[in-house]
Amino acid sequence: MYETLSPRVHQVIKLAEVIAREYEQEYVGTEHVLLAIAREGTGLGASILKGKNATESRIRQEVDKLVKASLEDTWVFGRLPGSPHFRNVIARAIEEARELGSKIVCTEHLLLALLSEKGCVAQAALQNLGFDAKSTREQVVQSVKGS
């Protein structure tokens, strides 16, 4: 199976870079990916966020509370470097897609990967907003089955 990123995930990654620049940061982190999923707004990942009223504004408030002054080591992905957590999330999203039998990595896979990346800003923000990996995975599986 050869997983590819969906056009929506490519858009989310581009938006994550825009959001990182809005934060005047020179890297793309998990928090930017999470905010980008919410901003893009049309994928299953965004739908799951909306289901718990996790709007871009609410997510941004949580991220702002959690962001630290120190920058993580970087890894280049596209134009802005991505944090090590960002790289792990992309790799985990590919694994999530594979485990769920999808040949395309979609926003729900990114969301699941963000929830499983311990120690990153996005995972902490999602946890603070009431999300957990198990129930979110169940919701993704149910939504995919219903399609």
Give an overview in words.
With 147 residues, the chain is mainly alpha-helical. The protein has one domain (4-146): Double Clp-N motif, CATH 1.10.1780. It is built from eight helices and four strands. It has a two-stranded parallel ribbon. The protein has a two-stranded antiparallel ribbon with strand order 2-3. Helix 1 (7-22) packs across helix 2. It is globular.
- Give the number of helices: 8
Integer average pLDDT:
84
The value of Rg in angstroms is 14 Å
Shape field: globular
Number of domains: 1
In CATH, the topology is named Double Clp-N motif
Order of H and E elements? EHHHHEEHEHHH
Helical residue percent band: 55-70%
Q: What structural class should be given to the helix and strand makeup?
A: mainly alpha
The CATH architecture: Orthogonal Bundle
Unreliable spans are 69-78
Q: How would a crystallographer describe the biggest sheet?
A: 2 strands, parallel
CATH homology-level superfamily: Clp, N-terminal domain
Sheet-strand content, in percent, reads 5-15%
- How many strand units? 4
* Major sheet: arrangement of strands: 1-4
The end-to-end span amounts to 21 Å
CATH class: Mainly Alpha
